[in-house]
UniProtKB/TrEMBL annotation:
<comment type="similarity">
    <text>Belongs to the Vsr family.</text>
</comment>
<dbReference type="Pfam" id="PF03852">
    <property type="entry name" value="Vsr"/>
</dbReference>
<keyword id="KW-0234">DNA repair</keyword>
<dbReference type="GO" id="GO:0016787">
    <property type="term" value="F:hydrolase activity"/>
</dbReference>
<keyword id="KW-0378">Hydrolase</keyword>
<keyword id="KW-0540">Nuclease</keyword>
<keyword id="KW-0227">DNA damage</keyword>
<keyword id="KW-0255">Endonuclease</keyword>
<dbReference type="InterPro" id="IPR011335">
    <property type="entry name" value="Restrct_endonuc-II-like"/>
</dbReference>
<dbReference type="InterPro" id="IPR004603">
    <property type="entry name" value="DNA_mismatch_endonuc_vsr"/>
</dbReference>
<dbReference type="GO" id="GO:0004519">
    <property type="term" value="F:endonuclease activity"/>
</dbReference>
<dbReference type="GO" id="GO:0006298">
    <property type="term" value="P:mismatch repair"/>
</dbReference>
<protein>
    <submittedName>
        <fullName>DNA mismatch endonuclease (Patch repair protein)</fullName>
        <ecNumber>3.1.-.-</ecNumber>
    </submittedName>
</protein>
Amino acid sequence: MSKQRRRDTRPEISVRKLLHALGLRYRVAWPIPGTKRRSVDIAFTRAKVAVFIDGCFWHSCPEHASRPAANDTWWSEKLAKNIARDVTTNEHLRQAGWRVVRIWEHEDPAEAVDRIVEEVARARAER
């Protein structure tokens, strides 16, 4: 697992390129205040919008989730912990006044960017 990329994955870079082309500026792998070893994939710090691009395997996508046949108990616990961590991270950010956008790696980058742009625009309008 240590060889798995934590940032700069293909889906993340695709989304970032489209956001940058639209003139939006953001932070990459921005550490979440008040948490250890957690970061936002793409953070719009002024608008307080956190974007996470979740891998289908690691975050148990409802459409594409799969589990290895070997060591099923360990993997079930591991993936359940990942989901629980996502929920607590979302809640932590929302309590701090952030909006959270979660995107699956299989989503079309252009559609994902549309959702992000809408959320950033809403957040800026409210400020």
